[in-house]
Structure formats: C-alpha cells, structure tokens
C-alpha cells in the first residue's frame, strides 16, 4: 500500500502541497486530479523520492521512500523524457539498469512488450526516427519495463489515436489485476471515469474533493435529465429547480439542482409526446469544473 500522510511541501515561502493525505491499495487505480499548478507534479516527485517533503510521511508497503523502494516504481511523465539519439533497445537498457535489471532480463521483457504493442520492428531504431505516437509507446514501455509495484501515469494517452488508447487501457487494467498500484492523472475526465475507483482533486496544493467516484457522483446534488420528444426548451427553463437546458442534436439535457425536482420536470412535459426521459448522474468533468469553480469563488 502507498500511504501519503499529511504531506506538505514548501519552495521557499511558497506552499505547493498543503497537508495532503491519501492511500492507494494493491490492485487499485487511483486518480490524482487538478488544474495546472495544483501540486500534482510536486506530489509525484515526492512519491518518487526526487523531492523531500517539508512535512508528513510517504511510505510504500510500510517503507519510507528510498532508492531500494523506487526500484519498484514506474513513472510515465507528461513531457517526453526519451533520449532521442539512442535506439529503443539502448534506451530501455539504460532505464532497466537504473531499476536494477540485468541485460538479458531487460531484453526479454522488452521483446515481449514491443511485440504486445505492435512495434517490435523498432527495437534497433533511434527514438528520433519514430512518430510521436510510437515514442509515447516506448515511453510507456520504459515505465512498465520493471513490472512496477507502483505505476504513476501522468497524461499517458497524450498523442495516441483511439486504437492505441485501447492498447494502453488493456495493459493498465491487466497490471491492476496483477496487483500493481496505479496513480492516474489526466485532464480528460472521461478517461479517469473509465479507470479509477477513487480520486483526489487538488487545488492550490490542497485536496478539495476526495473519495470513491461512485459515491461522489451519487452524493453530488445536481443531476441531469435527458429528454427526447416534442418538448419546448423555454417551458423547461421556467421550471423551479432547473439550472440549465442544453439543446443537443436530437434531445434536451436538463440540469436540475437535485433529484427532488425530477417530478416537477416530468409534470411539465407529461402531456407531450416523449420517447426518452432518463435521469443520470453528472459527469466527473461537471463535478470537477463545479468544485474547482466553487473554491476559486470563496
């Protein structure tokens, strides 16, 4: 288990991370989210042992972060961190050696992963000769080369087409099934919803929302109603409790303050022809934007 307990980080007088706590269990995919400058990267660097916390503790399976522990961690950064004049093999041997792996172990694992991701022919190609998408594949491969116990993924799908996003997704899910702890960070909330059981949303170094995604969505007051039929948008906008009505191609999306206003909306349209009336939880993106906005307004 990864434990981040009351962690604080100062850069001089600037407070980058403020009393942050969360845990990630074996086999769990955890979302660490936030706007740019929220403190995510600083948190990742402290978990990796690259930065020392100003206060609090970080442990992996009960051990403080050290070089012995970081051998069990894989990290895919948002920025490209490949040495472009190296071949794929040279790059992976370099990273593997840093994780305490031997040459044969590295090459066997590399061959397996290159084949799995459909890029076996690039083994002896220089990184700079690869497309951006294939460079992202190699960067991902270097992050999982050592079969990490903890894998940190910062915007892992950057530059990937939908087919390759699916390849990455399958591998991430497979690793979690095998017991790896995974911290996932992305600005694409639909990706977070696909993977993560629990999340922390950070703003200005602090956690402003945390918990199980399912519970967060259930407890969040605002709901959405999707309606298809002969319905007047302006009439719905006048109903008490309706926050907004959005017209899509063939349906209306009605945002209401909470579940108690569903009956009022239905009464307004019950005598019209409708083929769809579905109440849904808000998306994680809506909750994220709303929560961050609330904090900025305080």
Overall description:
- With 298 residues, this protein is of the alpha/beta class.
- It has 11 helices and 14 strands.
- The strands form 3 sheets. Strands 6-7-8-3-9-10 form a 6-stranded mixed beta sheet. It has a 4-stranded antiparallel beta sheet with strand order 2-1-4-5, with helices on one face.
- Helix 3 packs across helix 4.
- The chain is globular.
- The chain starts with a strand and ends with a helix.
- 30% of the residues are buried.
What's the CATH architecture of the largest domain? 3-Layer(aba) Sandwich
H-E order: EEEHEEHEHHHEHEHEEHEHEEHEH
Strand order of the largest sheet: 6-7-8-3-9-10
| C-alpha Rg (nearest Å) | 23 Å
Characterize the largest beta sheet: strand count, sense, and whether it forms a barrel: 6 strands, mixed
The residue-averaged pLDDT reads 90
CATH topology term of the largest domain: Rossmann fold
Helical proportion?
Answer: 25-40%
Number of strands: 14
Tell me, briefly, the overall form. globular
Number of domains: 2
Helix vs. strand class: alpha/beta
| Strand residues, percent | 25-35%
Q: Distance N terminus to C terminus?
A: 35 Å
Notable features of this structure?
298 residues; Rossmann fold; 6-stranded mixed β-sheet; 14 strands; alpha/beta; Alpha-Beta Plaits
List the helices and strands and how they pair.
Elements: E1 2-11, E2 14-24, E3 29-34, H1 40-47, E4 55-60, E5 63-64, H2 67-70, E6 73-76, H3 88-98, H4 103-116, H5 132-144, E7 150-154, H6 162-177, E8 181-185, H7 189-195, E9 198-203, E10 206-212, H8 213-219, E11 223-229, H9 233-237, E12 242-247, E13 252-256, H10 262-269, E14 274-280, H11 284-297
Parallel strand pairs: 3-8, 3-9, 6-7, 7-8
Antiparallel strand pairs: 1-2, 1-4, 4-5, 9-10, 11-13, 11-14, 12-13
């Amino acid at each position: 288990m990864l434990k981040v307990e009351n962690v604080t980080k100062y850069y001089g007088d600037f407070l980058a991370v403020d009393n942050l706590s969360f845990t990630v269990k074996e086999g769990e995919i955890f979302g660490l989210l936030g706007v740019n400058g929220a403190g995510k990267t600083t948190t990742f660097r402290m978990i990796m042992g690259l930065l020392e916390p100003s206060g609090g503790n970080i442990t992996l399976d009960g051990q403080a972060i050290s070089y012995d522990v970081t051998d069990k961690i894989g990290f895919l950064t948002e920025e490209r961190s490949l040495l472009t004049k190296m071949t794929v093999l040279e790059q992976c041997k370099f990273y593997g050696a840093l994780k305490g792996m031997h040459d044969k172990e590295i090459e066997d694992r590399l061959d397996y992963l290159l084949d799995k991701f459909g890029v076996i022919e690039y083994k002896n190609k220089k990184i700079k000769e690869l497309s951006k998408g294939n460079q992202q594949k190699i960067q991902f491969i270097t992050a999982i080369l050592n079969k990490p116990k903890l894998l940190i993924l910062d915007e892992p799908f950057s530059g990937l087409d939908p087919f390759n996003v699916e390849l990455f997704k399958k591998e991430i899910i497979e690793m979690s099934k095998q017991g790896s702890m995974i911290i996932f960070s992305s600005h694409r909330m639909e990706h977070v919803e696909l993977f993560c059981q629990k999340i922390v949303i950070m703003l200005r170094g602090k956690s402003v929302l945390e918990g199980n995604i399912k519970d967060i969505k259930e407890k969040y007051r605002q709901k959405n109603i999707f309606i298809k039929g002969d319905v007047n948008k302006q009439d719905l906008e006048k109903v008490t409790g309706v926050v907004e009505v959005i017209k899509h191609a063939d349906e209306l999306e009605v945002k209401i303050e909470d579940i108690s206003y569903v009956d009022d909306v239905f009464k307004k349209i019950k005598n019209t022809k409708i083929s769809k009336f579905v109440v849904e939880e808000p998306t994680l993106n809506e909750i994220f934007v709303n929560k961050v906005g609330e904090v900025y307004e305080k």
